[in-house]
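dumping this here before i forget
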Amino acid sequence: ALNPKRMEILDFQAGLQSFAGYQDDIDPEKYRPYLGRYQGPRGVITVSLEGGGLKLTLADQRAFGLREPDDGGEWLFQLSPDVGVTFERDRSGGVAALTIVNRVRLPKKEGPADIPDRVPENLRPYLGRYSLPMQKEELTVSYQGGRLAVHVPGLGVRRLEGPDAQGVWVADQGDDRFSFVTDEAGRVRTMILIESIRSSRID
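structure:
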């Protein structure tokens, strides 16, 4: 129920980085290949070295510290493990682009009261409505044409292919991907909308 009129960060600790700064020695050459400006659909993104690691500054001047890359090469945001950055290299090995990966968690509201017999048993747990956070809208997962289909407000219906080995479903339109979180009983509790925004390096 937090509803402050004003907030100020006095200190934080997230992994090895803190608001007060990074205390250990760093090797700038390790981060140099990633530094620079990247042109994205929403303006220029700047990657710099600050506080002992990479910092991502968006076009609106919001800045985010990045953790060290995980085993998959993704640099997660210090303050949110649901958002991260991957870097793309060209044929010569130089960094040519970055992609911001945002995972939006949508809690499941309920499933349909009656599921047609034609729906395969393994797909039934996914059907239902999912709430969009901070919005008075919802996504609906149904069964169409032998596949799962997601009804996205304002964007229509996207049929899904999958899942892959990581449990990710790919939409037949656009770049969005989806995954689902289940509880110990196998009930689907959350859908994760995985948004990817690519930005090409400009210097």
